[in-house]
Structure formats: structure tokens, C-alpha cells
Amino acid sequence: MQQGLFGDESVAQNCIFCKIIAGKAPAHILYRDEQVLSFLDISPVSAGHTLIIPLKHHDNLFTLSGEEMTAVALHAKRLAPIIKRVSKAEGLAIHQLNGRAAGQTVFHYHMHLIPSHHGGPKLIHGRRPAAPSALAEIAADIRQALTKG
Ligand code: 5GP
Ligand code: ZN
Questions:
Q1: What is the pLDDT of residues 19-55, one digit of tens each?
Q2: Which fold has domain 12-148?
Q3: In angstroms, what is the span from residue 123 Cα to ligand 1's centroid?
Q4: Where are the coiled-coil regions (predicted)?
Q5: CA gap 138, 79 in Å, rounded
Q6: Model pTM greater than 0.90?
Q7: Domain segments of the chain: what residues?
């Protein structure tokens, strides 16, 4: 378990996104630096549905620092056109839920980037897990596009 990222070790042990950060749970990771991690949503609304999280655990927006929010936003700005292109989408929706009342289901701050298609679903949550092979394939394509800039 990485040290220094969590205010409370018990939070890290119970949070699925902290487990992904620590390499204790699998994910199709797109990018990581010293502040943020991006990976594919396990139950995508559409192919390429991505989550961006700060490495430090925050339940939601209310405790996130401006610096962490900026890091997430800058990564979203870089990733959005790449995801849109790789998934051959016509648009891209960004959603970010804070609190159970808002529909949040995983309590580690995250931003959704969801490729949108004319006539496609306008949802925030997908209905079922995607095939791991499909996730692996699009993750590889996005990672490759990211390395090209
Ligand atoms: P929220 O409702 O909190 O905004 O969205 C949580 C998102 O996390 C959902 O879209 C859900 O599919 C996704 N999710 C939940 N558990 C996992 C997981 O273990 N791995 C990945 N990659 N995504 C997850
Ligand atoms: Zn966490």
C-alpha cells in the first residue's frame, strides 16, 4: 500500500479506487502521474467511458483542493479529444456526482468522460460490465494515442 496518499488507512482499504491506485484491484489504466490516474469504467455507458481520479482519497468535491481539481481538469482536457477520436464519437459528456443524493455510488472523487453518439444513450451509469477483452482493446488504443500526444 502506498503511504502518504491517504488521511485514513481504513479508507484506503475499503475504497475500490484506492485499491486500483495501490495496484490491489485490476483496472484498465490509461494514464498516471503524481496527482491523477485515469482508467476505463468497468460498466461503460459507451466504449471509452473513462474515470479520472486524484491519487489522494477524497470522498467527493467538497474536500478536494483547487490544485487537485486543476490536475483532474487538465488531464480531462488532454484526454477528452483522444477518447472522442478513438471511440469514433460525435460528442463527449462529462459528469461528476457529489454525494448519495446526487447519485454518487463510489465515494472517491472522480470525473466521468463519456463518448456520446447521436441517438445513443444519455446516461451517467452503464447497465452492465463490459467484456474485459473489449476494455483491454480500447484502453490500448487510447494509451497509444496518448503517447503520440
Ligand atoms: P458514480 O456513481 O460514483 O459517479 O460512478 C461510479 C462509477 O464507477 C460507475 O460508473 C461504475 O461503473 C464505476 N465502477 C464501480 N466499481 C468499479 C471498479 O471496480 N472498477 C472500475 N473500473 N469502475 C468501477
Ligand atoms: Zn479512495
A1: 999 999 999 999 999 999 999 999 999 999 999 999 9
A2: HIT family, subunit A (3.30.428)
A3: 13
A4: none
A5: 13
A6: yes
A7: 12-148
